[in-house]
């Protein structure tokens, strides 16, 4: 099909079919790609030739996909802003309209995708010519309805497409003129001689009243009618809508297949924009709460989908009533204030039922109103009719229920659930801040039951219970006398003691607990660690568990990883309180201080089950423990340093004796990383030979792998620590290391090298020998920078980094 040939409908149909057939052709299939490109080019030439080709093709083709493509092309002609739109005149649009409506009259069914696309094209014709050039648009369409159910359904599709193209338009995309034209269309649809909304609503009403559950055609029509009604409720007169309310109530109570759509329509009714006084009057006339309450007794226990949609209605009503209450309070409208408050109170039972629902999706539908109630609680006064504090028990119950992790068999998006849990935590923290004693009483009751049934309680319930204890402290910011909650003998800290006593009981098989429960328990031990500072027995029992099969040695990787991290945080927070247990701690940690890499260490690491990232927490913990030992224990302190660093130095030495390889460079970097984490525990200059040996080892590694990115990075980090620990003369004795770093740097580690040099300048500003080193290396370093900036191998980002 050459582009120069005259376009005809037969070839155009073939081109469209080829375009569909080869749309998914492999890029490696040259023949298929050629056919596809030729077909697409022919279609493009046809579009540039005339709309009539596609109008004819739509009429004559027997292929649904060709009809769809033809309608898509006509849509392009009718869409403002498209390249083809300027070609279309009024006579052309009249021609399209006449042909399509004539074709539509003789149809009795269409595939849904063709039906939807046809509706869009007719909606665009309405947008173009109604009401000025085609004032009878909707009356022409309404006149087709007696032809049968298909025409009624098609009319609903056209109304839906009209809503999308005219009512819900993007004014920022098309500008003020387009918005003004759309407003003109909307006004004409609502009022005046060409109006159609009242007649259209009559059609929907007649369809819904004729609904018969045994008739599949009526089901499809009713669903389509409810979808259309839902779209138009917001911008039509409320009087047109109110006659549907009893019908919607009846549908909610009796027709399973229509309930969700009926609830969607009700939500649009209660969400209509109004002043607070009119909104309250509407809600009073609707008498909606008894209907919703009746649903709770019947259908809401069986259908989660309906619960979701009803939840949306409840959420909207609740939010609107809260705004009404605030408004009436400000205007001192006592009668309306009391009426709105009473209505909100009557809405609470179904709100809390939905909030505590087993389905997270249902609960999320009422989250906004539940969150908004915290604002009323914050400003609650004794004389208020609606007292949010009366609902703290179901409020907290809902939070507790929803904070439970989903059952592992449920198909729940983990990220979405974690986000929802964060929102719940925020509400819980706010409630704690406002009513800490009430919250404490609730979690005490909950925890008492949990600890009594520790072995049999569902792990999701237990973890959620512990989570409430964990997050309680976050709500204590700003409360009066917060120190009462830190008192070891106070009621809250005694709850923490009870948790420890239960979880550390000798007869309890702690490793058998679910991994999330264990992790949350260890989180609690870390957050409320002050208790362990004064109870060494509890601390010893905890350390035995966390370094055993219930923690660092657990079967689940999350427990192992969190145990390593949390025990580091825990023992750091305890400070000198850990010194009496130093020997036991180091003995417990020592088996895990093997960096995997060589065959032997890799086998040990595999048996250990810890990743290098997990181990680094333990290396850092080791350094902290040894570094924090008192001066009186200096001799023992340096013995411990030798014990933990010597095996790492030996690993470096063994690796350097082997032929260089990428695998060994990674292992060397890992060992250096581990040693650096140990060195974090030491904060001042030391004279110990082990540190100068560490410097020599790091230098040897760099000299052997001077261009390895990962080795260079870890050597620089090691040097950052050694600058603090070593005497300047000792450190500068290996100035060759600095020279290699500066002269062999690449664009990706320039910043790291400069940061090291900045640290040295600050630390050694009074050391003359350092400036000699700097003088020898500054010019070569700058020359290297110029090379990197000019190099074709350096990308734009790296060049900018080097220049900076």
From TrEMBL:
GO BP of this protein: tRNA re-export from nucleus
SUPFAM superfamilies: ARM repeat (SSF48371)
Residues of the Exportin-1/Importin-beta-like domain: 111-266
Cell location: Cytoplasm; Nucleus
CC terms in the record's Gene Ontology section: cytoplasm; nuclear matrix; nuclear pore
Any one GO molecular function term: small GTPase binding
Assigned keywords, A-Z: Cytoplasm, Nucleus, RNA-binding, Transport, tRNA-binding
Signal peptide span: none
Predominant localisation class: cytoplasm
Exportin-T C-terminal domain ranges (all copies): 337-798
Role of this protein: tRNA nucleus export receptor which facilitates tRNA translocation across the nuclear pore complex.
Similarity annotation: Belongs to the exportin family.
Entry protein name: Exportin-T
Natural source organism: Aphanomyces astaci (Crayfish plague agent)
Lineage: Eukaryota, Sar, Stramenopiles, Oomycota, Saprolegniomycetes
């Amino acid at each position: 099909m050459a582009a120069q040939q005259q376009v005809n409908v037969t070839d155009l149909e073939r081109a469209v079919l080829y375009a569909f057939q080869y749309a998914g052709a492999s890029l490696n299939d040259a023949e298929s790609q050629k056919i596809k490109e030729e077909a697409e080019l022919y279609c493009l030439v046809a579009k540039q030739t005339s709309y009539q080709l596609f109008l004819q093709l739509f009429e004559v083709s027997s292929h649904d996909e060709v009809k769809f493509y033809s309608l898509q092309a006509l849509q392009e002609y009718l869409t403002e802003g498209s390249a083809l739109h300027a070609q279309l005149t009024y006579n052309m649009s009249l021609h399209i309209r006449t042909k399509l409506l004539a074709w539509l009259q003789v149809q009795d069914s269409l595939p849904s995708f063709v039906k939807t696309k046809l509706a869009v094209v007719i909606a665009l014709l309405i947008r173009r010519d109604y009401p000025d050039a085609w004032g009878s648009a909707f009356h022409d369409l309404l006149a087709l309805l007696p032809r049968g159910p298909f025409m009624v359904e098609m009319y609903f599709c056209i109304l839906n497409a009209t809503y999308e193209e005219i009512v819900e338009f993007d004014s920022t995309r098309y500008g003020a003129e387009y918005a003004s034209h759309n407003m003109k269309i909307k006004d004409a649809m609502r009022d005046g001689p060409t109006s159609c909304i009242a007649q259209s609503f009559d059609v929907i009403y007649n369809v819904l009243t004729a609904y018969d559950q045994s008739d599949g055609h009526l089901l499809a029509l009713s669903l389509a009618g409810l979808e259309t009604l839902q779209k138009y409720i917001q911008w039509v007169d409320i009087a047109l809508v109110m006659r549907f309310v009893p019908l919607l109530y009846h549908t909610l109570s009796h027709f399973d297949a229509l309930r969700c759509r009926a609830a969607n329509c009700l939500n649009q009714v209660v969400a209509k924009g109004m002043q607070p006084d009119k909104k309250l009057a509407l809600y009073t006339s609707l008498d909606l709460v008894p209907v919703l309450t009746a649903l709770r007794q019947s259908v809401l226990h069986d259908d989660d989908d309906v619960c979701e949609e009803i939840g949306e209605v409840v959420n909207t009503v609740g939010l609107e009533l809260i705004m009404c209450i605030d408004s009436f309070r400000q205007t001192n409208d006592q009668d309306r204030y009391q009426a709105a408050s009473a209505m909100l109170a009557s809405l609470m039972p179904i709100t809390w039922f939905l909030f505590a629902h087993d389905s997270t999706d249902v609960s999320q539908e009422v989250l906004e109103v539940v969150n908004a109630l915290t604002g009323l609680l914050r400003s609650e006064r004794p004389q208020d009719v609606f007292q949010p504090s009366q609902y703290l028990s179901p409020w907290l119950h809902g939070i507790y229920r929803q904070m439970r992790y989903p059952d592992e068999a449920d198909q729940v998006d983990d990220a979405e659930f974690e986000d929802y849990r964060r929102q719940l935590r925020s509400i819980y923290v706010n409630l704690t801040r406002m009513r800490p004693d009430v919250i404490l009483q609730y979690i005490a009751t909950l925890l008492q039951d949990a600890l009594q049934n520790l072995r049999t309680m569902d792990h999701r319930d237990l973890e959620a219970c512990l989570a409430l204890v964990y997050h309680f402290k976050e709500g204590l910011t700003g409360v009066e006398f917060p120190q009462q909650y830190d008192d070891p003998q106070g009621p809250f800290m005694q709850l923490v003691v009870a948790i420890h006593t239960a979880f550390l009981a000798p007869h309890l098989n702690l490793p058998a607990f679910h991994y999330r429960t264990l992790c949350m328990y260890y989180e609690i031990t870390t957050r409320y660690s002050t208790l362990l500072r004064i109870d060494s027995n509890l601390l010893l029992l905890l350390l035995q568990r966390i370094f055993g099969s219930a923690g660092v040695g657990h079967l689940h990787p999350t427990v192992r990883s969190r145990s390593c991290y949390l025990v580091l945080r825990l023992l750091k927070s305890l400070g000198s309180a850990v010194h009496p247990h130093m020997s036991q701690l180091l003995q417990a940690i020592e088996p895990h201080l093997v960096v995997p890499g060589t065959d032997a260490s890799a086998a040990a690491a595999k048996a250990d089950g810890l990743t290098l990232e997990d181990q680094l927490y333990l290396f850092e913990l080791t350094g902290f423990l040894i570094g924090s030992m008192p001066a009186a224990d200096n001799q023992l302190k340096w013995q411990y340093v030798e014990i933990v660093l010597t095996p790492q130095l030996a690993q470096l030495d063994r690796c350097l004796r082997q032929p260089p390889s990428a695998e060994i460079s990674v292992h060397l970097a890992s060992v250096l990383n581990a040693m650096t984490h140990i060195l974090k525990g030491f904060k001042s200059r030391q004279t110990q030979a082990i540190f100068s040996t560490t410097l020599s080892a790091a230098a040897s590694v760099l000299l052997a792998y001077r261009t390895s990115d990962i080795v260079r990075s870890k050597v620089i980090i090691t040097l950052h620590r050694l600058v603090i620990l070593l005497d300047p003369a000792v450190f500068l004795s290996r100035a060759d290391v600095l020279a290699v770093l500066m002269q062999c740097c690449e664009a990706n580690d320039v910043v790291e090298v400069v940061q090291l040099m900045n640290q040295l300048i600050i630390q050694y500003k009074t050391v003359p020998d350092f400036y000699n080193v700097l003088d020898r290396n500054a010019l070569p370093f700058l020359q290297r920078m110029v090379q990197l900036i000019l190099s074709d191998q350096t990308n734009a980002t790296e060049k900018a980094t080097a220049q900076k």
